[in-house]
TrEMBL record:
Chain ranges passing through the membrane: none
Protein name: Cell wall hydrolase
A single MF term (Gene Ontology): hydrolase activity
Highest taxon of the lineage: Bacteria
Keywords (A to Z) from UniProt: Hydrolase, Signal
Signal peptide: 1-24
Pfam families, sorted: Hydrolase_2
Keyword field contains Phosphoprotein: no
Domain Cell wall hydrolase SleB: 88-188
Length: 191
């Protein structure tokens, strides 16, 4: 009877070990799939939206077959920037600010995630002065979603500033292309 009990315990341990091994390999496969979704290869450029889990993707921005997979965090972060950078601007100006963020993620000259673009050093005055910690209005979220749907009133601009209040000499002195004025902001690209 003693030996039967030991054999039973041994068999139970073997079965349990096999289940743990199967579970672990399934978990590794799922993590690898999530990593593959996070890093999308588009025309030999990797666009990484820093999504911690594929289940968190809530929106996809699609432009010329380039896709950015957006999480709730990305959308909230964009809405905060829109609020802080374009408070008092017309709705089109809010959409334009959101569009600049998306345009930068797609541009090879900028980081390849929403978070990295927003927190890139000296990129947005609201991050520099700490005014990004705001609660966006519904209008800001609407503007972000309009930009995600492809509404870009900036003509693919990568930069913007308010010429009346700008303290950055780079913005005022750089040669600009494709300039578009919306509200008090000037949206543009550089040569």
């Amino acid at each position: 009877m003693k030996y039967l009990r030991k054999i039973f315990i041994l068999c139970t341990l073997l079965i349990f070990s096999a289940e743990i091994t199967t579970f672990a390999s399934t978990k590794i496969e799922n993590n690898n799939m999530a990593s593959n979704i996070k890093n999308i290869n588009i025309n030999d450029n990797i666009i990484n939206n820093a999504s911690p889990d594929a289940d968190e993707v809530v929106e996809v921005f699609n432009y010329n077959d380039n896709k950015i997979y957006l999480t709730e965090y990305d959308i909230n972060l964009m809405a905060q920037v829109v609020y802080a950078e374009s408070k008092g601007e017309p709705y089109e100006g809010k959409v334009a600010v959101a569009s600049v963020i998306l345009n930068r993620v797609l541009s090879p000259g900028f980081p390849n995630s929403i978070e990295e673009v927003v927190f890139q050093p000296n990129a947005f005055s609201c991050v520099i002065d700490g005014k990004i910690s705001v609660t966006p209005t519904q209008e800001c979220y609407d503007a972000v979603y309009d930009a995600i749907r492809g509404n870009d009133p900036t003509n693919e601009a990568l930069f913007f500033y308010n010429p009346e209040t700008a303290t950055c000499s780079w913005m005022t002195n750089i040669e600009k292309t494709q300039s578009t004025s919306i509200g008090r902001h000037l949206f543009f690209n550089t040569k």
